[in-house]
Amino acid sequence: MAAPYELIYYAGVPGRGEHVRLILEEAGAPYQDTQFLSFDEARQRVTTWLAGGGHGNPRYFAPPLLKHGDLVISQTPNILLYLGSRLGLAGEQEDDVYRVNALALTALDGLSNEVHDAHHPIAVMLPYADQREESRRRSKEWVQSRLPSHLAYWQKVLVENEERGSGPWLLGSTFTYADLVLFQCLDGTHYAFPKAMRQARDTGKYDRVFKLWEDVKARPNIAAYLASSRRQKYQDWGVYRHYDDNDVIAE
Amino acid sequence: MAAPYELIYYAGVPGRGEHVRLILEEAGAPYQDTQFLSFDEARQRVTTWLAGGGHGNPRYFAPPLLKHGDLVISQTPNILLYLGSRLGLAGEQEDDVYRVNALALTALDGLSNEVHDAHHPIAVMLPYADQREESRRRSKEWVQSRLPSHLAYWQKVLVENEERGSGPWLLGSTFTYADLVLFQCLDGTHYAFPKAMRQARDTGKYDRVFKLWEDVKARPNIAAYLASSRRQKYQDWGVYRHYDDNDVIAE
Hints:
Two copies of one chain form a homodimer. By secondary structure, chain A is mainly α. Chain A has two domains: about 5-85, Glutaredoxin; about 95-240, Up-down Bundle (Glutathione S-transferase Yfyf (Class Pi), Chain A, domain 2), CATH 1.20.1050. Helices cover about 55% and strands about 5% of the residues of chain A. Chain A is built from nine helices and four strands. Chain A has helices spanning about 15-25, 40-50, 75-85, 95-120, 130-165, 175-190, 195-205, 205-215, 220-225, and strands at about 5-10, 30-35, 65-70, 70-75. In chain A, strands 2-1-3-4 form a four-stranded mixed β-sheet. The longest helix of chain A has about 30 residues, at about 130-165. The first copy, chain A, is globular, with a radius of gyration of 18 Å. The interface between A and B is large, with 51 and 51 residues. Chains A, B: It comes from Hypoxylon rubiginosum. Chains A, B: This is Glutathione S-transferase protein-like protein.
């Protein structure tokens, strides 16, 4: 399809839409982005498109949405799956698309959804202030047991590739959108939990993981994007938030 | 591939593996299932395969896993995506696979992951008893605001199809694995929150959603499966758990 890619998401924070931006930026694919609208206009656009895009597209529950011609789809990993195949970032071997999708889903589960829930453990509809104590308790537990578990998992994936003489990416020698997803997840987790991430880095146990973060950041298209005004700043709303109360280290 | 499908998951509860069983059962596809091993043997099998399946399959973080010949993949929605295309349950129109994947991801987010987190709001590594108060608070909030939000969403999808002269399934006239996923999510949520689900049903506001639950249950292959010993019972471990403390209704 020659139609433009259109990202429909809230304006003002990187959020879940950021994964979509990163894959489009890496591929150098032109796209439209509601982040350039006002906050209210972007929100209105999201609401309109959530009600379904006609042409047999069912109503969707939450943004980000991707519009491409008559197709309107939701769910971050689903949008990445669609774009990954089209943009040559979903692997090269038969069935790699499923390996890459699994890696992306795992990164989003562990280092995006779990991090989000650290500031909203009781209810996503209630403000943080109404669940501050629970949020602190959850953050302490998360930094203590889950963060090391996730980092150790990604380290093993990368080390095992290296032992097979492959790497430096998650799928081996082939860069895929799973690398972009893990980069953004690490970057956002670092914003939310800088002390714990520094502590983890200093152990030296996750050096391949932190190297991947740097390697993605240094890719020419990504570096140019991150330096541009298109890269929005993290704020204290959205998926990744920094609260001093939660910025703890493991014991 | 003529290789058999092999589901690798814990034995003893339906869990996330149940979504994989339902799609295979609906399609009448033969499969092997570690649920027939002892509890310890199944757990051992899971651990072994999580370390990667060779042949370029990276290590994975959590079960269920699907093995099909040399391919080993993780992540429930990813396994369904793979099987859905092969078994003719991912729609008929171009790009339907992405519409179906979005619907399945939305059902799993809202009526599986959120329900799981109701009994583990603070930490998945801590026992329920250590987060019982928070669990009760989260359950009350969830039943009050999120359950109606999810049911209203699914009702709208189904009503809008009907208004277009289509239905009775989520994608319209074509039955897909998204219907199976929503069925299992409703069924498990009913196990966890029977009072709230009965209350929701009695309002009459979600009649299309509860009808879909019944319609899926009545499909010949699914009915036969649910009546068989292959359908495991819910227990108070796993994704869906019933705790009296959490079995509340909306105010």
